[in-house]
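Re: the request from the purification team.
They wanted to know what the chain is likely to look like in 3D before they choose a buffer screen. I agreed to run a prediction and write the result into the notebook, where they can find it.
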Amino acid sequence: MSETIDNPTVEEYNEKETIVSGEQVEQEIQENEQVSQSFQISIKTPAEIGTINIQVQPTDTLIDIQSFLYETSETCLYSSYEFRLDGKQIPEYSELSSIEGLVEGSTLEMVPIDYNERSAKLHVKRLRDIMNTGLTEFANMNNPSLFSSFSFPEKSNILTEEQQLEEQKQKFEQQQQQQQQQTEDKEEKETIATEQQQNKKNKHHHHNKKGNKKNSGGDESLNNENNEEKLTPQQKERKQKMTEIKGIDKPMLSNYYPESPIAPVQCVKSMIYSGWSPVPGYRKLFGDLFYLDITLLEGTTICVTASTQGFFINQSSNATFNPSVSQKATINHSLHQLLTQVSRLFRRGLNQILANIGRNHPFDMLPGVLPVHNWVASSKTNRYDINKGTDTFVSVQDVELRGNPRDWNEEIQAPKELPKSTVQERIIRDRAISKVNSEFVECAIRGAQVIVDKAILPINPAENQRSHMFLYNNIFFSYALDTRDSFTDCGGDDAARTSANNDLKGIRLYNLADIEGLYTLGTAIVDYKGQRIIAQSLIPGILTTEKTSKIYYGSMDTPTNEEEEEEQQQQQQQQKEDGENKNNNTKSIKADPEFHSRLLQAASLLHLSESKVISEDNNQEVSVCTSFESKGIIGIDGRRYILDLIKATPRDPNYTETKDQLAVLRPEAIATYSEYFKVTWLTQKRQQKLKEKEERQKKEGIDPPTATARDEDVQLTDEDLAQSPVVSFNPNLFSKVKLGGTPEEQQKDIEDLKAIGAFLKGILIPRLIEDLMLFNVAPVDGQTLTQVMHVRGINMRYLGYIAKNESANVPFIQDLLFNEMVSRAAKHCFNRLLRSTNASDMAHSISHFLNCFLGTETGSVSADEKSKKAKQIKSSAINELTQGKLWSEIAQLVSSKFDFEIPTHSVPMESRLIVLRCICLKMGIQILAKDYNFTTDAPFSPEDIVDLFPIVKHVNPRSTDGLDLLEAGKTFFNQRKYELATELLGEALAIYHQVHGPIHPDAGACFTHLAMLAYQNEQYDLAIEYQKNALVITEKTAGLDHHETVQSYTTLAVFCQRSGRYNESIGYMKHVLYLTDLLGGEYNPERASIYTAIAAILEDTERFDLALEFLKQTLKHQEFLFTPDHLMCSTTYHKMAIVCARATNFDDSIIHQKKSTDILEKELGEAHPRTKESLEFYNGLSQTAHQIKLFKQHQALKAEQDELARLQKEKVDQIKKSQPRVSSMPPSLENGSVSELLNYINGKPKKSQSKKSKSTNTTTTTTTTATTSKSKITMAKNPNPTTKATTSKSSTTASSAATNKSSTTTTKINSSAADSSAPKPNKKSSKN
């Protein structure tokens, strides 16, 4: 029997396909070397700046270089100039590859050119914007980044091998220089006396020079000390505040924004357009453009003339007009140069602002493709600036209509017709598409706000307000409402909002298919103040020509001209007489052959089958390959447009009811199922061939080969691969249209569609739940949960199905699903409330809704207070809304949309801040950063609502070449092919920079993976720089507190820790800890890893107690999320053991390691390598602890002996001091005569005194002996009652020995004293 062959997974198959596509793109790039080969050129700026070297691509244009210089602090104030190469002018739209003579190392010169009124006003506006950055909280208030507020850069203390070799080389060179310097100093000392003073100065100079060279070497600790000394007190205080971690404190929303480290800087008091403007005609002949009144900080006011040559001060005042040049300053091409000459305070303030900008990250000043508005505002400030009022007054809403409006449709469609055969051509094409899309979306946002605020008139004012349509800057706007009763059976206006969203998704798919000759409209959806506005580009002639209104493909619901209207009325009348089609919803379906052939190409890519439907007007079958609702129109420009792509993918077979008409499958699910189906078929084909081969060998009598050889021998041919079936689905199943074809064909289509429904519920969702349970994916909020589900092809309507699954019955997952379902239902209730709210009651409406949604009914607000508050509100809908009514609507919506019954009618207290952030992001609400008390009835007040921003959805074009290279680079990175991965990711980054610019999510992803590659190659400084770029991009494109932003901060902190930048790492991790604890939920799985990372940094900085505290919190979360016996807990116990061991707390270390080992033995078994390693470490700890214990006992014994000796010595000294003083001569001679003294000296004592001396000697000896015996008895006792029992025996022995030794010493001393007072005895008596 043949062995079963495991089916390859979809991921493995996709990985192979990614590698192939990546290699194909790489080959194309190698064929066209101009795309990826960058080179360096120089830019010669004005004289005071010098020359700047920049790295460029051949496909860059001079406009790209101007944009770079516009955002560089050194050149940001220069705006009117042209580039010249070797004295020749270059057109500003020229590509660098087309400039003759421009090669590596060439120098482009910035040459000032004359101003016109537009360029001069832009120059003034630029200077005003730069000066305003000194008065604002962040460098870019429209799209800020907080990175600079948490960054305190340091130098790396851990060097790589290359850096160590370089450091040794520098030290060797320094030593040689020092030796040479010492030789020179020695020679200087030998000079003549007249030059000694000068020599001392030279010596002092060389000594300082020598010290500077030494400091510039590799001694990082010395550098850090020097840097520490150079810090100002304010910088030291900021550094200490950033790097200080006291423990795990409760985060406060009021601390969301850090304090700005930079004080406000003002350059001028005011800069306004003068009342002498506009320029009189006779002054225009002299080149005057306009006049400015500038009040300097010194208090003087000057009138400045903007002319074609530059700026100069005139002699005008408020009373008189004198445009002649003043003598105060000369004419200057730039305004800031002029003001620098006349105001010292302006020069100082501007230099400080530019220095502050230069200290920030280079990406801080760069705008994103579209700004991302944050849900929290630091304060409600409105700075007085007369220029803002002037700009607002000039910029009326219809300013674009005064001139020639842009033809958006032509700008959107023309780039699609550009050639795309090579990578360079595709880059140019993608860049044009991306640029026009971002400009279209920006204009659409402005138009939607104007329409909702009712600032412009509709083009059909006579019709119902719900049916109003608008034309703003040549963009067509309409409300996403069910004005034609098309969605009465499936939700009405809510279904109309969903259909608009589905239509945008369909446009994305057809743009991705990119079929030549098939066009889609530029589309954006803007949600603002409860209204959904659809913005679309106009089909040429759609509003003026009847021909363009004719439908060539798809269904025609309403007549489009008089003939069709008359014909349809006759058909309806005939049907009414026959009693047929009483609802008059006749579907006339057409299929133009040219349209059909092009749509077939798109259908093959989207896995849609060609199906037959019945056209009800003539009861004939029509073959279509899209949903019958889609429409094909030919414009007067000859292009074929496909519209109404609300069902670009098939219906979801798990939701086939009438109310679920708009429930369609996600394209990711279709693609995954198609690959799964293909891999399964290929596996079965291979097994079939293997079985046939075995049977053939068995008949021939050949021994069967081994399993490995058998598998390698059986290979599928190209013919087999070509025969693999292609999965396709009928897009018209479960719809209102009548299907054609045979019943068998219809049944087969239904079975195919139900198969993917079973695949969705049977494989995709269980895999998702499994990954959630194993924490392979860990969504922490609604944003990340939505992203995880959509990538896997699972719609959000399956939230209730997942929540009811028994496998997902984990508190963290249940809370996450509950919060997202409740937030999505609350959004619909919120939109209804805002649509019925007056403009003057918006703040009251928002705050009241948030109070009902997240407040707590305590009954503390009296009825009189409620009545008084209700009188201030004009909108009745606000007063009618109560907490009970709101939660009843939410529960009903959750039940109908997600088929789930919520267990409680309130958000859990610990999740209310998370849900608040979620609803604010969904609705565009911005609230004040303060601490809200959710235990009260009204935690929010109208003053807490700062702003309401529009939420926009658009096509979001992406570079396919860059995406292929990025995915291939990821694949090779996972395969540890780092060199190839680095090359592919670098090429992808170059493409993204050319197509989208640096501030784009895909560019951020490239920087992230390049940082990981540099980290793996131990290039830590390079990894940190890449990661900083990725972090700023993520903050600007995803948000200040997005999960990806938190991950970027965490990765950067790990890189800094590895390179020895501990203070910088702690600063980043402190911000990560704040965001995680603030918005991550009580038992967010990310918390454990973040706590562990912080503990590792604290361990490296030898703050062991605090590190142990964070590890204990990690263990607490892991025990809650998993079980106390989980392997994750074992790892944490092991880390705790290491921290305790480093803190020399071996008792606790042994306890933690014992717990870790027990868990491993229980889960993995005693024979597992991890268990053995853990047990070995445990034994090592025990042995080390035992040795340290013995060493401590030895130290204690030695200390005790030393103490006993010290006490004995003190007693001996006391005894010596207590004895009477003994004279060196006999008492009888103390008062004797001189002759007696001489006889004593000559050794002639008196005979009569010998007996007396003998008796005295005997007495002294007896006294000494008695004293010694008493001393023995006293010292034999235990002098230290607190001595341990383990050392009593040895201490007693030591005490006795010390006492005997001391007694002997004392006896000798006393005997000597006694002998000295007596005559010398003879040898016999001494012996006795």
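For the purification team: The chain is about 55% helix and 10% strand.
Please add any questions underneath this entry.
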